């Protein structure tokens, strides 16, 4: 079976590797090179992520087996302990903030008492009107107002009251009242899957990505402009490439407009989908042990530092500052000069699609589009193809599961 995969990011490469064992698979990629948003860029010998900070770990055994046994052996990675902090009122707190109440008490007893009182009194009925409501019911009003609401306003570029909480499962450590109380009297910490993570020994994520792409047929610099389904069921791309089966990792807000005969109501739903770009700047910095720093405060438009130099072995003093939306080089430089930790700018980048937005249209629009694509027989995959807030490991997991489903479906039909 001839299979076409639109997009050669982590999701496209992963399913290409899975299905390429039994089928003729070709990937079409508009960029000059594979890898998508997980690919690094080299500046002054530092390989850094221009869109987010992409590391690897997972709770899925099949993903671990795929990566370590088929792509890049475990011996070719080093393991890093996640050390994330939060800058609040000029103080550095350990992440997650709900376990840092003892630290907060050292500079603001009243705030620590209010956080404790509200967290223990929070009434979580598991019915949430929006993301702000979710924060208040999970963490109490004080933590919501001091950290979660302002920080999430920055990272989503909109008010949490106008967003769905659908993305948060598995993304945030959520303590119950017992573990919160243990955090007050002990050194209780979160047990998130990414509390530790792997990074290639080359100090460049492209080592993994290039191994993932090895042996695949990838056509780069290829812009998909039209998708047509012929009466015989085959798919034709740009009137020249023909496939028996089509898998798309293209953004869900763009794909319907490329498909011949898409109903107007589906095109309208696609226009409702929103996403954010991010602007990043790589800096030479002072030393830190941290891997991430989160910044909820409004006087600094950066929402986080990704201390990419601490992903390396040995570590180096380099960090990425990130802001949601488009900022100029001069704006990034001026904002960075407020923090003496940031010594010298090294590189600058503005992304395309970076993060999907979970607003009031998200659920109805994605359901309508996905149902239509399923009806006409196009498989959609990945962060933008499924319009989800997926980490790299979940993209790989989704690819493994889809490949298994396709193999089962076509073995039965055969």
UniProtKB/TrEMBL annotation:
Gene3D superfamilies recorded: FAD/NAD(P)-binding domain
Top-level taxonomic group: Bacteria
Cited PANTHER family: UDP-GALACTOPYRANOSE MUTASE
Protein's name in the database: UDP-galactopyranose mutase
Organism: Mucilaginibacter gynuensis
Lineage of producing organism: Bacteria, Pseudomonadati, Bacteroidota, Sphingobacteriia, Sphingobacteriales
């Amino acid at each position: 079976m001839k299979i076409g995969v639109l997009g050669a990011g982590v999701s496209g490469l992963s399913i290409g590797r899975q299905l390429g064992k039994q089928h003729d698979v070709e990937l079409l990629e508009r960029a000059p090179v594979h890898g998508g948003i997980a690919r690094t860029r080299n500046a002054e010998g530092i390989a850094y992520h221009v869109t987010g900070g992409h590391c690897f770990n997972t709770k899925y055994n099949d993903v671990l087996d795929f990566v370590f046994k088929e792509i890049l052996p475990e011996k070719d990675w080093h393991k890093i302990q996640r050390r994330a902090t939060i800058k609040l009122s000029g103080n550095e707190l350990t992440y997650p903030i709900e376990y840092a109440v003892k630290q907060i008490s050292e500079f603001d007893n009243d705030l620590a008492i209010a956080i404790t009182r509200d967290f223990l009194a929070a009434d979580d009925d598991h019915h949430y009107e929006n993301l702000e409501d979710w924060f208040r019911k999970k963490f109490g009003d004080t933590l919501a107002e001091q950290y979660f609401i302002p920080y999430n306003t920055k990272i989503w570029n909109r008010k949490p009251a106008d967003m769905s909480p659908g993305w948060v499962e598995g993304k945030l450590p959520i303590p119950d009242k017992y573990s919160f109380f243990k955090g007050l009297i002990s050194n209780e910490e979160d047990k998130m899957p990414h509390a530790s993570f792997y990074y290639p020994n080359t100090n460049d994520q492209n080592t993994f990505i290039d191994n993932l792409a090895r042996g695949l047929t990838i056509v780069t610099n290829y812009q998909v402009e039209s998708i047509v389904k012929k009466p015989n069921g085959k798919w034709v791309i740009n009137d020249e490439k023909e496939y028996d089966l089509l898998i798309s990792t293209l953004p869900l807000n763009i794909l319907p407009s490329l498909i011949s005969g898409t109903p107007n109501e589906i095109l309208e739903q696609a226009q409702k989908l929103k996403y954010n770009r991010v602007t990043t700047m790589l800096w030479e910095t002072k030393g830190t042990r941290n891997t991430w720093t989160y910044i909820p405060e409004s006087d600094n438009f950066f929402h986080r530092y990704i201390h990419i130099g601490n992903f390396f072995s040995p570590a180096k003093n380099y960090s990425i500052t990130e802001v949601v939306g488009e900022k100029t080089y001069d704006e990034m430089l001026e904002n960075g000069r407020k923090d003496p930790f940031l010594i010298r700018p090294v590189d600058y980048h503005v992304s395309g699609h970076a993060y999907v937005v979970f607003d009031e249209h998200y659920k109805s629009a994605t359901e309508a589009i996905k149902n239509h694509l399923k009806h006409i027989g196009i498989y959609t995959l990945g962060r933008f193809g499924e319009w989800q807030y997926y980490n790299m490991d979940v993209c790989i997991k989704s690819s493994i599961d889809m490949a298994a489903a396709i193999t089962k479906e076509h073995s039965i039909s055969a």
